[in-house]
Protein backbone atom coordinates (compact mmCIF):
# COMPACT_ATOMS: atom_id res chain seq x y z
CA UNK A 1 0.00 0.00 0.00
CA UNK A 2 2.82 2.41 0.84
CA UNK A 3 4.55 1.81 -2.48
CA UNK A 4 1.35 2.56 -4.39
CA UNK A 5 0.91 5.80 -2.44
CA UNK A 6 4.48 6.87 -3.26
CA UNK A 7 3.92 6.16 -6.97
CA UNK A 8 0.65 8.14 -6.87
CA UNK A 9 2.36 11.11 -5.22
CA UNK A 10 5.12 10.90 -7.83
CA UNK A 11 2.57 10.91 -10.65
CA UNK A 12 0.75 13.90 -9.14
CA UNK A 13 4.03 15.83 -8.78
CA UNK A 14 5.03 14.94 -12.34
CA UNK A 15 1.76 16.27 -13.75
CA UNK A 16 1.98 19.37 -11.52
CA UNK A 17 5.43 20.16 -12.95
CA UNK A 18 4.17 19.64 -16.49
CA UNK A 19 1.21 21.91 -15.76
CA UNK A 20 3.45 24.73 -14.52
CA UNK A 21 5.75 24.38 -17.54
CA UNK A 22 2.77 24.17 -19.89
CA UNK A 23 1.35 27.49 -18.70
CA UNK A 24 4.18 29.33 -20.42
CA UNK A 25 4.03 27.58 -23.78
CA UNK A 26 1.50 28.65 -26.41
CA UNK A 27 0.91 26.68 -29.60
CA UNK A 28 -0.54 28.77 -32.39
CA UNK A 29 -1.64 28.16 -35.93
CA UNK A 30 -2.09 30.73 -38.62
CA UNK A 31 -3.75 31.17 -41.93
CA UNK A 32 -1.37 31.06 -44.86
CA UNK A 33 -2.29 32.49 -48.23
CA UNK A 34 0.10 30.19 -50.09
CA UNK A 35 0.13 26.42 -49.94
CA UNK A 36 3.88 26.03 -49.42
CA UNK A 37 3.93 28.24 -46.30
CA UNK A 38 1.72 25.84 -44.32
CA UNK A 39 3.83 22.81 -45.26
CA UNK A 40 6.06 22.76 -42.11
CA UNK A 41 3.02 23.02 -39.83
CA UNK A 42 1.22 20.21 -41.66
CA UNK A 43 4.34 18.04 -41.69
CA UNK A 44 4.88 18.61 -37.95
CA UNK A 45 1.35 17.51 -37.09
CA UNK A 46 1.59 14.45 -39.34
CA UNK A 47 5.04 13.43 -38.04
CA UNK A 48 3.91 13.81 -34.43
CA UNK A 49 0.74 11.78 -35.05
CA UNK A 50 2.68 9.01 -36.84
CA UNK A 51 5.26 8.88 -34.06
CA UNK A 52 2.69 8.63 -31.27
CA UNK A 53 0.65 6.07 -33.22
CA UNK A 54 3.76 3.93 -33.83
CA UNK A 55 4.82 4.11 -30.18
CA UNK A 56 1.40 3.25 -28.81
CA UNK A 57 0.19 0.56 -31.20
CA UNK A 58 3.27 -0.90 -32.94
CA UNK A 59 6.02 -0.61 -30.34
CA UNK A 60 7.61 -3.98 -31.10
CA UNK A 61 7.36 -3.80 -34.87
CA UNK A 62 8.62 -0.25 -35.43
CA UNK A 63 11.43 -0.13 -32.86
CA UNK A 64 12.86 3.38 -32.74
CA UNK A 65 10.97 4.65 -35.79
CA UNK A 66 8.23 6.12 -33.58
CA UNK A 67 10.77 8.11 -31.57
CA UNK A 68 12.37 9.36 -34.78
CA UNK A 69 9.02 10.60 -36.14
CA UNK A 70 8.20 12.20 -32.80
CA UNK A 71 11.55 14.02 -32.76
CA UNK A 72 11.08 15.23 -36.35
CA UNK A 73 7.61 16.48 -35.45
CA UNK A 74 8.88 18.44 -32.45
CA UNK A 75 11.69 20.02 -34.48
CA UNK A 76 9.24 20.98 -37.25
CA UNK A 77 6.87 22.53 -34.70
CA UNK A 78 9.61 24.92 -33.59
CA UNK A 79 10.75 25.59 -37.17
CA UNK A 80 7.22 26.44 -38.32
CA UNK A 81 6.99 29.24 -35.75
CA UNK A 82 3.93 27.75 -34.10
CA UNK A 83 5.35 27.84 -30.58
CA UNK A 84 5.51 30.96 -28.42
CA UNK A 85 7.44 30.76 -25.15
CA UNK A 86 6.21 33.32 -22.64
CA UNK A 87 8.66 34.76 -20.11
CA UNK A 88 8.49 33.12 -16.71
CA UNK A 89 9.73 34.03 -13.27
CA UNK A 90 12.62 32.20 -11.67
CA UNK A 91 10.38 31.14 -8.81
CA UNK A 92 7.84 29.54 -11.17
CA UNK A 93 10.63 27.74 -13.03
CA UNK A 94 12.16 26.39 -9.79
CA UNK A 95 8.79 25.09 -8.55
CA UNK A 96 7.96 23.48 -11.89
CA UNK A 97 11.38 21.85 -12.33
CA UNK A 98 11.49 20.61 -8.72
CA UNK A 99 8.01 19.09 -8.96
CA UNK A 100 8.86 17.48 -12.30
CA UNK A 101 12.19 16.02 -11.12
CA UNK A 102 10.84 14.86 -7.75
CA UNK A 103 7.78 13.27 -9.32
CA UNK A 104 9.91 11.43 -11.86
CA UNK A 105 12.28 10.18 -9.16
CA UNK A 106 9.40 8.98 -6.95
CA UNK A 107 7.69 7.30 -9.88
CA UNK A 108 10.81 5.43 -11.00
CA UNK A 109 12.68 4.66 -7.77
CA UNK A 110 10.13 5.24 -5.02
CA UNK A 111 12.45 7.42 -2.95
CA UNK A 112 14.39 10.67 -3.00
CA UNK A 113 18.08 10.75 -2.04
CA UNK A 114 19.32 14.03 -0.61
Automatic annotation (TrEMBL):
Transmembrane recorded as keyword: yes
What keyword terms does UniProt attach to this protein? Membrane, Transmembrane, Transmembrane helix
Bilayer-spanning residue ranges = 12-32, 38-58, 65-84, 90-107
Protein name in UniProt: Uncharacterized protein
Question: What species does this protein belong to?
Answer: Nostoc punctiforme NIES-2108
Amino acid sequence: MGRLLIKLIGLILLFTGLYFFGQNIIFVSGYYSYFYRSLPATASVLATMIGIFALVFFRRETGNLGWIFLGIGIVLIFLSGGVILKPTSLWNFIIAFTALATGYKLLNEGRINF
